[in-house]
Amino acid sequence: MDKNQDSQSQGVAGQPAVDALTVVSGSARESRSLWSDARSRLLRNPVAMAGGAVAILLILVAVAAPYVAPYDPIHQDLANSLAGPSIKHLAGTDVHGRDIFSRIIHGTRISLRIGFLGMLLGCVVGVILGLVSGYYGGWADTIIMRLMDVQLAFPGLLVAICIIAIIGPGLENVILAVGIFSVPLFARVTRGQILSLKEQEFIVAARMMGAQDGRIMLSHLLPNAVAPLLVLCTLRIATAILTAASLSFLGLGAQPPIPEWGAMLSDGRAYLAIAPHVATTPGLAILITVLAFNLLGDGLRDALDPRLKA
Amino acid sequence: MVRFILRRLLYMTPILFGVSVVIFLILHLVPGDPARLVAGLDATQEDVKIIRSSLGLDRPLPVQYISWLGNVLRGDLGRSTRTRRPVTQELRLTFPATVELTLCATAIAVLIGVVAGTTAAVRRNSIFDYSSMVVALLGVCTPSFWLGLMLMLVFAVKFDLFPTTGRGGLENLVLPAVTLGAGAAAIIARVTRSSMLEVLGMDYIRTAHAKGLSERAVVLRHAVKNALIPVITVIGLEFGYLLAGAVVTETVFAYPGVGWLLVEAIGFRDYPVIQGALLLLALQFAVVNLVVDVLYAFADPRISYG
Question: Does CATH number 1.10.3720.10 belong to domain A47-68+92-308?
């Protein structure tokens, strides 16, 4: 994308402002072809398409969970405790006799919700900070980026754990923690994009034509930074789901009897020797979900930025 | 070189300052009276009052921060509200276990990752290449707590080769270290492979082939050396993530490290321990990053440290 704009800018270099208009509309036309190119590249990538298909299937399952699940996910049937997989209970039952298959299906809803909302929160806050930081530079940039550095000084999961330690465990708090956890990454990627874009001539032109800062950021800079952000969003859903499951496994996330995958796995730990199916299936569900979004994200990256492809 | 290290240390200072402020504020951000939180849930009104004045919780926040930081720098992190032992003592008991686990996991990850990545690159598009990259992809997406339980199920419950939990000899370390290292091994393998592929396509490698060196000599003596430079950074970063990942792994295997201590402390709302454990892990991460940067500058003469 940058390459296209570079060649265009060279084409009009040194010419009067009238051509600046052409550059603006020209870049819009180019970006349309970027998307259709990317779409056809994505459609030709079977691995990414498989990831996308599974992701869509998971979303459908999440939406239709109450209709698809054969049993009530929190209905206890103590006479039927820790039963192995059978025709009646495809994935067996847990220690309270609850149908694990139904709990996994309802868990899809919980995990995808955390994944999407967590990603969205991180994306919105991160993009705003990145835009301000990259566009204005100066002290705003210094303060925002140092704050991001402080957060990145806590390795990986520890930020989320730190936030949970403050606001307490619970499903909604996990969304908040996972969201804040994603902010620095979105801020850095956005800032990097803005820094490389803002000196380009179509931005200079927009500024010369009297566009306000807000307008330049939202209608000129942001649309041109969407591609890498879209990739990051997809990959971050996977990370958010994995992080949330880890928190719930540690007992810091979803509380019983919520059918969250990480929490279910944690419940199954005690019965590993006598009923291994209790811990096995939720892990598979997490693995499949994370894999699907990662494959889709990798495919999107290859499709949107062909220069990165080996 | 000394100047480079000093500059990096200087750069670290504001970040560590920020980290310490955040950790200090934990106690004040938690809803409720900080003095009661420190005193513990079963403390009497008198105890709370004593703690409030002894910690100076009635003074303005910046003053409190400075005296807190002074105590931390003197090695006084307060007392656990649960065990009543000094936090530093709790950390001293658990920290060696975490370092042991993290180092073992890193060693496993580097060994598997570099060997698999190099082999995959040398035999590009072979069955080994494809299968190792599929395994690496699965390794990145597998939740470590699930992998840990599955390893426990197979090697401890079914075959009784290793103990399931606890800390002791080397046999206690194997399953947790493999669990913790697996994800990092996958990432290191992917980075090594792509770095090797790039190096193998360079002119000097063709020259080495042309002058009649054996494949083995070309790969081991010429290619790997240069291909490993970016891998060093990844290993350093991964080491930091392993420290955080240890929190999960230690909980799976009930392995008494800092991560396990942290999770326990959150469960009991034992804030002095939470603060101490977070501070230690963040500090260790910062130090590891510094060491990696220095090693990187050593390994790659193209980086100037002026």
Answer: yes
